[in-house]
Amino acid sequence: MKLGIDIGRVIIAPDAADRGDTSFIGGTIENALATPPCDGVFDVLPEIVQYFHGRVWLVSKARKSVQEKTRRWLIHQRFFERTGIATCNLRFCLERADKAEHCRELGITHFIDDRQDVLQHMSGIVAHRYLFGPQRDAVPPELVHVESWHSVLSTIGKR
Fold first, then answer.
1. Are 29 and 66 spatial neighbours (Cβ–Cβ below 8 Å)?
2. What is the pLDDT of residues 52-83, one digit of tens each?
3. Domain ranges, ordered by start, for the chain
């Protein structure tokens, strides 16, 4: 078993104005570093990392400037120390659909993302796909909806 996790709106809290992403896009580094983590991530993720025996990767779509802000945010939050995820288990791509190729290469069996389109690209590659957070549209039956990190913990162990 191997787990992949998106970063924006899954680990890093969404923009308070709910423009569909984090405040990293177009914001300053100071704004990025001040962005809070999603509720419960540091309570739950270390236990999930143990459940997957450390085989957990962060896979995010981001351009260069957002990649740098993301790396700085992860360091600022002491993310890797607090979760047990290896620092080398961080991957970026430039298109959302490319996350599926990372999953194929890494042998990811479970993936958590906040976007249905990303998870649809993983069909036939990732067996267990989790749609994170509140959703405006109906969740397709092939995806498992998890509202929060606490529901991730209670759901992932059942699959």
1. no
2. 999 999 999 999 999 999 999 999 999 999 99
3. 3-156
